[in-house]
Amino acid sequence: MPNSSTATAKPRALSLAQPTADSMHLGNYLGALRQWVGMQDEFEAFFGVANLHSYNEWPSPEELHERTLATAAQIIGAGIDPDRSVVFVQSQIPEHTQLMWTLACMTGFGQASRMTQFKDKSAKRGVDTTNVGLFTYPILMAADILIYQADKVPVGEDQRQHLELTRDLAERFNARYGDTFVVPDAHILASVGKIQDLQEPTAKMSKSAASPNGLINLLDDPKKNTKKFKSAVTDSGSEITYDFENKPGVSNLLSILSAISGTPVPQLVEEFDGKLYGHLKVAVAEAVADEVSPIRARALELLDDRAELERLLDRGAEKARTVAYATTKAVYDKIGMLI
Ligand code: TRP
User: Fold this and answer.
1) Domain identity same for 38 and 56
2) Cβ proximity of 103 and 58 under 8 Å
């Protein structure tokens, strides 16, 4: 196998986040970003903003631009250290789309057609608005991963099939041309318990929620978030117990508090024995504010100082490009493509 990490002995981890909203929400943070932060010791880490992928949702130019920077600022704000890890924006590394073409020519039409995310999304959008970019999305993702010779790819369960495709493509290329790509492993992120909408606790927290009051955004004023916690929907009765079936509101608050504090849910239930819903709401609001406030402050500081943010991203792009170019060159040499 090619050595993924020539500069360090550590294995390499890589993941990208799509810049789909003006702010990441608490579910994104607990489900992915916070876990990325914890991987920086063990891995040589590459974390990027998948703005090429997000273009498929047709954001306006302003949205795409602002959300790309805001996502990068939140990644850094959350604790991905640009001195230790590589923080980059996908569109600044043209080799991603270059490698995508090579991989596209090795992907069976049938195999790409079987991607469940493509099937779901294209069924929702309908034939008239489904574009070829949605179809090749997983191949671009495979290029994102293989171009950095990543060993581990932290992603949610919904990306497992895309990782399988990536591994397949790496193996297919290696079998045909000799060892070129590291065959990456998916590192399925720990499910942090359910992080549900505060107004509709039977639904996952999501930017497309019916009411903005159910959504906790990292970049929002902590006072605004505290208010949302205080007006979170709770359930009939007054006992604080963990029972998503019958008490989804209270269970969601317990689940969030547990994820933030690391205290197991049963212990929280004991601690809140005899207390009121209001006490739990205040405790969750405070715990979230304590964790999120410094992240928000650092992210907003970077968004206020565009020159500094762009400097950090340019530096990340430069580091990323060194690796991406080396892989592209190796691939082109092997397949007989002039570079
Ligand atoms: N498709 C991923 C998602 O929606 C984002 C992504 C793009 C990604 N490229 C990647 C994740 C490469 C891991 C590695 O979450």
Assistant:
1) yes
2) no
Q: Quick check: is 7 in a domain?
A: no
Residue with the nearest Cα to atom 15 of ligand 1? 17
Which CATH number is 280's domain given? 1.10.240.10
- The owner of tokens 């195999």 is 111
334 is catalytic: no
207 is annotated as an active-site residue: yes
206 domain residue, yes or no: no
Catalytic residue among 10, 194, 207, 227: 207
The verdict on 98 and 116 lying in the same domain is yes
- Mean pLDDT in order along the chain per 10 residues (339 residues): 59 98 96 95 98 96 98 98 98 98 98 96 90 97 98 94 98 98 93 86 90 96 97 92 94 96 95 96 98 98 98 98 98 97
| Residue to mutate (ligand 1; options 144, 151, 166, 167; most atoms within 8 A of CB) | 144
pTM exceeding the 0.85 threshold for the entire prediction: yes
Number of separate domains in the chain: 2
Does residue 202 sit within a domain? no
Helix axis angle for 116-125 and 132-146, nearest 10°, is 150
